[in-house]
Amino acid sequence: MAESAEHDSVDRVLAQWNAERPDIDPAPMGVIGRISRAAATFDKALRDNFAKYGLQRWEFDIIGTLLRSGPPYRLTAGQLTASTMVTSGAITNRIDRLVDRGLVDRETDPDNRRQVLISLTADGRKLANEVVAHHATYEAELLSHLDAGERDQLAGLLRKLLTGLGDTTPKD
């Protein structure tokens, strides 16, 4: 892959570190700085995109998680907590808000009265399906500066980084 002749804002920071502290290697700062800047840019873009549907990112995260779980589009509160990486207190509050919006239902598991089941309503399923179709296209647009091979290479490198940092598939 050819190096880009363009410079980003992180290049300036690295040049300043090289000038001020030539005794340290700021290259790791470049990698982490770029990941952080990309994450912040993606976060804003996705927030703005979900707002077009009257959703916050966390709302789509929950209804999308329920949709991709497949029929009957139901998970326990614990499974949702693991999939969304928030605390049980936060998930309870978020579910309450989605119940109020009519996007999910909450019921006690008849097979285990200590568990709560969260299900997509028909309205929640309709909205999730509408948003996910546009969301996939929008994310492809955000990555359009990379060709398919570069996207695959980047995904592989990020996967390697994340698993090295301890991010592994949660157990069901």
| Percentage of residues assigned to helices | 55-70%
Low-confidence stretches: none
Main sheet makeup: 3 strands, antiparallel
Tell me the CATH architecture of the domain at 54-165: Orthogonal Bundle
Strands across the major sheet, in which order? Answer: 1-3-2
Mean pLDDT: 92
Short description:
The protein is mainly alpha-helical and 172 residues long.
Topology:
Layout: H1 9-20, H2 27-51, H3 57-68, E1 74-76, H4 77-84, H5 88-100, E2 104-108, E3 116-120, H6 122-142, H7 148-164
Antiparallel strand pairs: 1-3, 2-3
Report what the structure shows.
With 172 residues, the protein is mainly α. The protein has a domain at 54-165: Winged helix-like DNA-binding domain superfamily/Winged helix DNA-binding domain (Arc Repressor Mutant, subunit A). The protein has seven helices and three strands, in the order H-H-H-E-H-H-E-E-H-H. A three-stranded antiparallel sheet has the order 1-3-2. A hairpin with a 7-residue loop joins strand 2 and strand 3. Helix 1 runs antiparallel to helix 2 (27-51), helix 2 (27-51) packs across helix 6 (122-142) and helix 3 (57-68) crosses helix 6. The longest helix is centred in the first third of the chain and has 25 residues, at 27-51. The mean pLDDT is 92.
